[in-house]
Design brief:
The protein is mostly helical. The protein is built from 6 helices and no strands. 63% of the residues lie in helices and 0% in strands.
Length: 168
Amino acid sequence: MDVLSHGLWGGIAFGRRSRRAFWTAVAFGMAPDLLAFGPHFAGSLWSALEGAPYQPTDPAHGYADIPSYVFLAYQVTHSLVVFTGAFLIAWLLRGRPWWPMAAWGLHVLMDIPTHGLGFFPTPFLWPLFDVRVDGIPWSRPVIFVPNVILLSLSYLWYFLIHRRKRRA
């Protein structure tokens, strides 16, 4: 799933309580991809803006232009095991669940069926097991179009309900 959709799904699912909860859930929904790919993307963009020549970095993984640290970060941020541990620690420290953080778990659950084995399959049981699902890539219209429609309907529903509550 694309980064923006993850944020929007996280916001509508776990951030309806307040504006702050919404933006926190959006951030948690986007965080797994931003933490895994963001530093490499920012570094590549910076190099390109400086006029540095393009240099492939890690042919060992079969992705010539993606460095090894991205794969490790992806495993950590896309693991339900890691998410569950972090969620439970936050719950223990706060004394109650921090629901906007659940958008991270939703991100991982949505990636499992929407990533194929050919490009960054979701390592959802890492580090315990190396199980990955050969899903339908989110970029295909059969996934992308319904995603946009369902997101639009979800937000339309929310704003209509929210408007009625304000009037009452």
